[in-house]
Amino acid sequence: MSYLIVNGPNLNRLGLREPETYGTWTLQDLEEGLRLYAIPLGMELKFYQSNSEGDLIDRIHHAPEEGIRGIVLNAGAYTHYSIALRDAISSVPVPVIEVHISNVHAREEFRHGSVLAAVCAGQISGFGPDSYRLALEAFRGMHHE
């Protein structure tokens, strides 16, 4: 079963960007850790990162034709205002779980709201890289056969 991990703007800066909030591990560290975690679960992971809203939308649009069973999405700041990304999520028959490394509800007020949450299967935030692993476990439960 293939799952897609999509990371939005500034997540390519993990390890450099605000380590007190996001940790010192890099995006490559995150991807390798998730890849290893997914092997015994029988999950194949594909990874994508872009700082461009349009590229993220295009990647989500292509997921169904690739047989993607679920998308783990950290949309970064787009979470809070991208109606276009919300529309992309609702336009595909693939469940999406919104994730955040930090607890967005314990941060600045403008980060508390998500325009994506209502069209996602769920939202996980505040567990660092484990937020992604928890999303994979949620998909495993949803797709248990």
Protein topology:
Blueprint: E1 2-7, H1 19-22, H2 27-38, E2 44-49, H3 53-62, E3 68-74, H4 83-90, E4 96-100, E5 122-125, H5 130-142
Parallel strand pairs: 1-2, 1-3, 3-4, 4-5
Helix pairs in contact: 3-4
Which sheet architecture does the biggest sheet show?
5 strands, parallel
Q: What's the mean pLDDT score?
A: 89
Tally the beta strands. 5
Q: Which range does the strand content fall in?
A: 15-25%
What would you call the structural class? Answer: alpha/beta
Number of helices: 5
Protein described:
The chain is of the alpha/beta class. The chain is 32% helix and 19% strand. The protein has a five-stranded parallel beta sheet with strand order 2-1-3-4-5, with helices on both faces. The chain is globular, with a radius of gyration of 14 Å. The model has no long low-confidence stretch (mean pLDDT 89).
